[in-house]
Write a structure and sequence with these properties.
Arc Repressor Mutant, subunit A; two-stranded antiparallel ribbon; 63% helix
C-alpha cells in the first residue's frame, strides 16, 4: 500500500479504498487475512482507530468478516461483488465523460484500439 495520504478524503476511507484495490488486483484473495490493525497503524503512522474504522467499512459492505481472536478475513465472493459495483460505478460516473470526449474528438473504435495497442507496446519496452 502507498504510504502517502491525500487531503481530499479521510484517511480511513483511503485505507478502505486501498484494500479494495488490492482485492480487485488479486493481491489479497478470498480467505486471506487482512494485515492486523496494529501493524497497519504502526507501519503507516496512523491511529489504530483510524485503521479499524476503515476495516469496519469493509465489514459493513460484506467484503470482510471478523473471526474473533483470529483477525479479519476477505469473504468468499468479495472480488466479484466489488467488480460488479465498480463496473456499475464506472458506467454511471466515468463512462459518460469518456464517451463525450470520444465523440467530441471524433474518435472511432479502431482509433481507440490502436491507441491502446501502441501504449501497451511502449510500456513493454520500458
Amino acid at each position: 500500500m502507498d504510504r502517502e495520504w491525500n487531503d481530499s478524503q479521510p484517511i480511513y476511507r483511503q485505507l478502505r479504498d486501498r484494500v479494495v484495490a488490492m482485492i480487485l488486483d488479486g493481491v489479497l484473495k478470498e480467505g486471506d487475512p487482512l494485515p492486523s490493525v496494529r501493524n497497519v497503524a504502526a507501519e503507516y503512522r496512523v491511529n489504530p482507530l483510524t485503521v479499524l474504522k476503515g476495516y469496519q467499512q469493509l465489514v459493513d459492505e460484506g467484503l470482510v468478516e471478523t473471526k474473533r481472536g483470529r483477525g479479519m478475513f476477505i469473504n468468499d465472493g468479495a472480488r466479484s461483488l466489488l467488480l460488479q459495483g465498480e463496473r456499475q460505478k464506472f458506467l454511471a460516473e466515468e463512462w459518460p465523460r469518456m464517451y463525450a470526449t470520444i465523440q467530441r474528438l471524433g474518435l472511432n473504435a479502431e482509433d481507440l484500439l490502436n491507441g491502446a495497442t501502441r501504449r501497451s507496446k511502449s510500456k513493454a519496452k520500458e
